[in-house]
TrEMBL record:
Its main location: Golgi. This is 2-phosphoxylose phosphatase 1. It comes from Mandrillus leucophaeus (Drill). It is found in: Golgi apparatus membrane. Keywords: Glycoprotein, Golgi apparatus, Hydrolase, Membrane, Signal-anchor, Transmembrane, Transmembrane helix. Belongs to the histidine acid phosphatase family. The keyword Amino-acid biosynthesis does not apply.
Amino acid sequence: MLFRNRFLLLLALAALLAFVSLSLQFFHLIPVSTAKNGASSKSRKRIMPDPVTEPPVTDPVYEALLYCNIPSVAERSMEGHAPHHFKLVSVHVFIRHGDRYPLYVIPKTKRPEIDCTLVANRKPYHPKLEAFVSHMSKGSGASFESPLNSLPLYPNHPLCEMGELTQTGVVQHLQNGQLLRDIYLKKHKLLPNDWSADQLYLETTGKSRTLQSGLALLYGFLPDFDWKKIYFRHQPSALFCSGSCYCPVRNQYLEKEQRRQYLLRLKNSQLEKTYGEMAKIVDVPTKQLRAANPIDSMLCHLCHNVSFPCTRNGCVDMEHFKVIKTHQIEDERERREKKLYLGYSLLGAHPILNQTIGRMQRATEGRKEELFALYSAHDVTLSPVLSALGLSEARFPRFAARLIFELWQDREKPNEHSVRILYNGVDVTFHTSFCQDHHKRSPKPMCPLENLVRFVKRDMFVALGGSSTNYYDACHREGF
């Protein structure tokens, strides 16, 4: 009898656990993923929308909150995942700066009151925040390429200046850096404990928010680093095109893309009505309000949970925000379909991708320089690279977005090297245009380096059409 009672009790307990598990899945508290074509979903997460965790229809507020990237619990990531017989050789990190104060203000309204000083006991919090401020205060004599040496190393204004990095932005990149440290240094020993200055390659645009974001990630990655080993190079172009920035055909693609954007906006009567309503609220011409790019300021209000501005004529509200944000989402969708932006992206991203594969090829030869490269950049840097790689379904770069190229060596076949591409911790390698077909033909868990090299050296130009076989000719071809 005692045995029977125990058996019934265990049976009831098992049924209860099964019910609880199904309930949690139903209410989306436990993510559920399915594998396509029988492949393991653990090894390659999808960048396509997940019907289990995302709204069934596009929700502009949901998309905006993803863009805010508000720091919370430590995220899971797929960086550094490889079969045991693969050795990590080098890592190349492209980041968008963290959360910033708006670049534009809504005319005749009060600026959102955001404090850009760094306070350890204020949310969002990071355990290294206070130490980061202390370490940055010791870096005034650091050697950076001009004009970076004139920029502040961390944000420090009681009322943020336009475009200034916020505490949220610093914490976002401290988290990124710590995550990469745990994976690349503690697990894979990418750099030795006595790493040298020439094993890092650091580059940033000339904005304080990109320099400070790069320093925050670097501090999370290499806490209390030796300032004498740190040298950030200055990149004048947001495309990081260095000495290859003159490209007339790229600019023609951009002009056509901007024309497409303009025509799409003209067709959106609800958008024009919304701009008209907001213009009346702030008492300026509609054209002036539109030129002030109100969505930039409104995103700051949303990300920092600050009420939208009001005047005696009324308030800018969430419905106005939803209309503008929805139009942005529709614009991104049409941009993918028309492919004008793809042409711009292939030419815009080529110089930085070419530089990256050059660094990878040197690493395959056994060179120990520049094993960890960090480019601290903007949305207009990452977006063309994502598009050029064929990652058309990837979301627009959020604050503190990270795009990572990993180079691996097969220990069993030392002459073979492979790459992995990760976007915000998700392995997107086999979504890229240069490795989709390889994934279909080969069971190997990574993409051969030669696929990426061939893509940058040849296939990027083939995708543009015409007969160009190099970057210069593609930039100067006639009859476009």
